[in-house]
Amino acid sequence: MTDKIYESPDGGLTVYERDTKTGERICIEREVKPDWHLEDHEFHDCMIYATEGNKTLQKLMSKMKMTYNLLKED
Questions:
Q1: Can you give the residue ranges of every domain in the chain?
Q2: What's this model's pTM, rounded to 2 decimal places?
Q3: What's the chain's Rg over C-alpha atoms?
């Protein structure tokens, strides 16, 4: 019989199962985010690319900013 321990470095959003004999660790549960979700560093990178001249990101960021401002006014 193999003993397992369960670890979560982020308060339960991600859960790992570790085999106590081999030390092998596998992810058994992970928070699922929508496909439009960006982590803070990804959003920051998009801002940098837009600033550096990426026209597609400039247009998308402009539309997003307009939408944000409209929602903020409600």
A1: 1-32, 40-73
A2: 0.59
A3: 20
